[in-house]
Design brief:
This protein is an alpha/beta fold. It contains 26 helices and 18 strands. Strand 2 and strand 3 form a beta hairpin. The longest helix has 39 residues.
């Protein structure tokens, strides 16, 4: 009884805080603004002023640089400068011009550009590898001594004669990033997931990639020369408002979602269904993602399990289209069912988590963990170090195939050609095969880059998962669909230990059978987001059905007190 009272009191407090936030937001939106609104305006104004100053400084620097070129090189060098600019045209002109300035005036001054990058936490090689971590491929050794950002800054200076200063920031979820942008944070290059990319495209917030970025003749264009044909086809086929993802986004990492599980405690059959999340057999032994989109997707899979696994549904001619519709269903009836389901998951799960689930699996606190495939690889790797075997299962209902990709923001890049050149170069540098391998090794996720004619990425996959010559229990695993347009190619087969078809290799490069039942998350419009966010607040803060009348009374009294306090402040401000 005492625990119930504590739970209700906590729920009431949570609801009070949420309602208080909503009231503050409402006043902020009104013509007579509260202190909160003034604070928000100050943040926006400062951010806007900072962005404006940055653009003005960049423009002035570029202008000064161009004047130096004109004074020092004169008409005699005009043809040479124009020739150097032809490969990259508009985007490279800015970089090429300031490069000429730095060398022509003899002063030793190196032109600079600042690039503001925001990426997922722990989602790029930070360097500082131990010597024993060296990846010794037949084609050469690979090791991360410095961070990828530091190495990019050095490479950009050597390649283009420009000093780039990367201001590197991180975010925890797609929603965190969007809120940061909404509140006025300014970045040039960010790396959201596919549904957030779609949202930013729909809101006209993105700068398209330049034509020069897609020039396969440029040897520094590692992305277009190395992106997997499978991934490229997806980015070109999916559109927002008639424009392909590929016009605005360059892929970084990709994967699917599933369940990491302890095979000694969880059966493969149970782990292969989203229904494990509220299965009472695993009470306080499972975790679920602490973000609305991933949790909503899993709930849909569980609720629609009978439909999605029926032979009739699987045999439909437009199966992929139907699957995407079902896994992005936002009808009011479905949202209500999802809320009830997630509340039952909350009562059954060990925790809602974003990152802690990996450690919880390795330490044995939980037996099953809803996970992105990249983090699944990391989790299984860590467990292996402790002689603790974990496995990975993809739910039979459906899996989310996700993509994280680089996009340039109008609020940061604007029409600054020098910044855009640096941003696209950052994408290309991270798409260079040796750097792809460094990032994959460091974070555990799978790059969208297959390497093109460069075989090192497949060589790395074989280095990671290939069986030893004297191993007997082995299995052939074909990943040709990722490396070549011929999905039946026998040139990309890894002979691996048999258990790898259910472990790291399976998570790193999912089988075609698993991908066949994958669906993307589409972006939701404002009305859909509002309905789903309300549902999520209810799930995360309290179970509405369990809230007694007196609990709601506490919330109402607290909201009334907040309104009275804000009204008092407004009256004082008017005098």
């Amino acid at each position: 009884m005492k625990k119930d009272l504590y739970r209700i009191a906590a729920a009431a407090l949570c609801g009070t805080l949420l309602c208080g936030s909503m009231v503050n937001a409402a006043y902020a939106a009104s013509d007579t603004q509260t202190d909160a609104a003034y604070a928000e305006d100050d943040v926006r104004e400062n951010a806007t002023r900072a962005a404006s100053d940055a653009r003005e400084n960049a423009t002035r620097a570029a202008s000064d640089a161009q004047e130096d070129v004109t004074r020092t090189t004169g008409d005699t060098n005009e043809d040479e400068t124009r020739t150097k600019g032809e490969l990259q045209q508009d985007a490279t002109h800015a970089a090429g011009d300031v490069q000429e300035t730095g060398s022509a005036d003899g002063s030793g001054n190196v032109p600079e550009v600042t690039l503001r990058v925001c990426n997922w936490e722990e989602y790029i090689d930070l360097g500082d590898w131990d010597e024993e971590e060296t990846i010794d491929l037949e084609s050469g050794d690979i090791i991360g001594v410095n961070s990828m950002v530091e190495d990019f800054e050095e490479w950009y200076l050597e390649t283009y004669g420009i000093k780039v200063n990367v201001e590197y920031s991180t975010f925890g979820t797609n929603e965190d990033l969007y809120n940061m942008l909404t509140l006025g944070d300014v970045y040039d290059l960010v790396c959201p997931s596919e549904y957030m990319i779609m949202k930013l495209m729909a809101e006209n917030q993105l700068v398209p990639l330049s034509d020069e970025f897609f020039d396969t003749a440029d040897e520094n264009n590692y992305y277009i020369n190395g992106v997997s044909p499978y991934i490229r086809s997806i980015f070109e086929a999916n559109e927002i408002n008639g424009e392909a993802w590929a016009k605005y986004a360059a892929g970084y990492m990709w994967g699917i979602t599933g369940i990491v599980y302890n095979p000694e405690l969880v059966t493969e059959e149970d782990a292969s269904s989203w229904k494990i999340l509220n299965n009472p057999a695993y009470y306080r032994q499972v975790t679920i993602k602490d973000n609305v989109r991933d949790s909503y997707f899993a709930a849909l899979g569980a609720l629609k399990s009978d439909l999605l696994t029926s032979e009739e549904f699987l045999q439909e001619a437009d199966y992929q289209k139907r699957l995407e519709q079902e896994m992005n269903d936002t009808s009011p009836e479905t949202i209500a069912l999802v809320q009830d389901y997630l509340q039952s998951v909350k009562n059954n799960a060990y925790s809602f988590e974003t990152d802690s689930g990996k450690a919880d699996m390795v330490t044995g606190k939980v037996a099953a963990n809803y996970q992105w495939s990249g983090d699944a690889v990391y989790t299984m790797d860590q467990a292996d170090e402790d002689d603790f075997t974990l496995a990975f299962a993809v739910p039979v209902e459906s899996t989310n195939i996700y993509f994280d990709g680089w996009v340039m923001l109008k609020s940061g890049i604007g029409d600054d050609a020098a910044k855009q050149h640096a941003a696209e170069a950052f994408i290309n540098f991270n798409s260079r095969p040796d750097n792809v391998i460094r990032n994959m090794y460091y974070i555990g996720y799978t790059s969208v880059i297959s390497g093109g004619e460069d075989e090192r990425i497949f060589e790395y996959a074989d280095w990671c998962y290939g069986a030893e010559e004297d191993e007997e229990d082995v299995a052939d695993y074909n990943i040709g669909y990722f490396f070549t347009e011929d999905e039946n190619s026998e040139d990309y087969v890894i002979t691996a230990p048999a258990d790898q078809v259910k472990r790291q290799l399976f998570a790193q490069y999912p089988s075609q059978e698993a991908i066949a039942r994958s669906s993307i998350m589409v972006y939701f419009d404002d009305a859909q987001n509002e309905a789903i966010n309300k549902m999520w607040i209810s799930v995360r803060c309290f179970n509405i059905n369990d809230m007694p009348v007196w609990g709601w009374g506490l919330i109402i009294l607290a909201v009334a007190a907040i309104i009275a306090m804000l009204a008092s402040k407004r009256r004082r401000q008017s005098y």
